[in-house]
């Protein structure tokens, strides 16, 4: 037998997550100077990590021989003050991705299902398949979440509903009132999972803490990989009712968040200046990219996140062409969007280089 035939059929059906290409790999494969390559593929912070986070991480390096704080006491205390919640309502994760896996492990089993948008974050699919449960992707007309279509897919076997707002990769954003009304309509057995990875870029984010305080079955997840610039440390968190968090603690791995990650996150939470600078640059970048692409006649979706979604004749051809010139973007064929690319906002110099290379490719199509 082939090795994969020993796997459960649902695990065998799992696609392998494909991250954005690292700069070093592109440089080596194409013979390019790494210093001249621009990566706009993974929605990272172009300003880099919070300086306070870097300082905090450097201070903890001499104690790397010790296990990290397995209870993440200071981390949860800090977040509880920031969010106005009890520390028992906060769960640390090795990035918010790990929390998605915890949710599926704890709440899904064969015969049950999870509902999410057709073009939602790919890890919703992966986590559901890993739990050997049924995926129920709801159609997204015009690449926007349709809460009515999601509601139609929910039945007595539905246990989780995933929604990102803003959504990755489409960038669609739903008004707070719509989300709150949707949550209130859910049956008791459904745990609503709001992915807030890009919430720090949003102008009018929904706040579900009042529903959590009422005891509704809601969990929200956030990451330090985006506005805080700590993607390499892998740290995120969730907040919910104490009962939901206690259930997830049952499946959380011991010491799942490193000492360096906890130190960096604590430093980043205090660095309001870095967050303000990042938001300002992001707004300027979105304005620039939207205007430049529209001037070419290229369909572009502005988002309340740190990327734009661009419609092109072939996402793969565009990706390959830009890659040869040292610009890394994200093709979306794996999401079922073969005629789109996702481009992260960068520094203004990086944005301008992208437009220079993209414009050359676009004009050569004619």
From TrEMBL:
Domain Aminotransferase class I/classII large span(s) in chain numbering: 36-356
One of the protein's GO biological processes: L-histidine biosynthetic process
SUPFAM superfamilies named in the record: PLP-dependent transferases
Record Gene3D superfamilies: Aspartate Aminotransferase, domain 1, Type I PLP-dependent aspartate aminotransferase-like (Major domain)
Cofactor or coenzyme needed: pyridoxal 5'-phosphate
Entry annotated with the keyword Chaperone: no
EC category: transferase
Keyword Ribosomal protein: no
Modification N6-(pyridoxal phosphate)lysine, positions: 226
Pfam families linked: Aminotran_1_2 (PF00155)
Catalysed conversion reaction: L-histidinol phosphate + 2-oxoglutarate = 3-(imidazol-4-yl)-2-oxopropyl phosphate + L-glutamate
EC number of this enzyme: 2.6.1.9
HAMAP family for the chain: HisC_aminotrans_2 (MF_01023)
NCBIfam families referenced in this protein's UniProt entry, alphabetically: hisC
Family of this protein: Belongs to the class-II pyridoxal-phosphate-dependent aminotransferase family. Histidinol-phosphate aminotransferase subfamily.
Name of the protein in its database record: Histidinol-phosphate aminotransferase
Species the sequence originates in: Puniceicoccus vermicola
């Amino acid at each position: 037998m082939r090795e994969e035939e020993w796997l459960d059929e649902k695990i065998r059906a799992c696609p392998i997550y494909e991250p954005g290409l690292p700069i070093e790999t592109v440089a080596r494969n194409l013979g390019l100077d790494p210093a001249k390559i621009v990566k706009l593929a993974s929605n990272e912070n172009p300003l880099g990590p919070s300086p306070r986070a870097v300082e905090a991480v450097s201070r903890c390096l001499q104690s790397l021989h010790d296990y990290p704080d397995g209870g993440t006491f200071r981390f949860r205390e800090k977040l509880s003050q920031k969010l106005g919640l009890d520390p028992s309502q906060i769960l640390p994760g090795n990035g918010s991705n790990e929390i998605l896996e915890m949710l599926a492990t704890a709440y899904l089993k064969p015969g049950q299902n999870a509902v999410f948008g057709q073009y939602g974050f790919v890890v919703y699919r992966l986590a559901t398949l890993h739990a050997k449960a049924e995926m129920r992707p709801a159609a997204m007309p015009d690449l926007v979440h349709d809460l009515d279509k999601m509601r139609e897919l929910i039945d007595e076997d539905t246990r989780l509903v995933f929604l990102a707002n803003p959504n990755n990769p489409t960038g669609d954003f739903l008004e707070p009132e719509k989300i709150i009304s949707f949550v209130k309509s859910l049956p008791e057995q459904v745990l609503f999972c709001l992915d807030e990875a890009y919430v720090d870029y949003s102008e009018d984010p929904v706040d579900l803490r009042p529903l959590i305080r009422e005891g509704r079955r809601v969990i929200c997840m956030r990451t330090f990989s985006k506005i805080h610039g700590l993607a390499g440390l892998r740290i995120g968190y969730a907040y919910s009712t104490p009962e939901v968090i206690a259930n997830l603690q049952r499946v959380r791995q011991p010491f799942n968040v490193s000492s360096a990650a906890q130190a960096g996150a604590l430093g980043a939470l205090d660095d309001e200046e870095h967050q303000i600078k990042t938001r300002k640059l992001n707004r300027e970048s979105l304005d620039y990219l939207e205007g430049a692409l529209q001037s070419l006649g290229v369909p572009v979706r502005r988002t309340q996140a740190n990327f734009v979604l661009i419609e092109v004749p072939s996402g793969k051809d565009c990706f390959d062409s830009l890659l040869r010139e040292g610009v890394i973007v994200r093709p979306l064929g794996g999401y079922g969007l073969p005629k789109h690319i996702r481009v992260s906002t960068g520094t203004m110099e990086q944005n301008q280089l992208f437009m220079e290379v993209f414009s050359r490719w676009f004009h050569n199509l004619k």
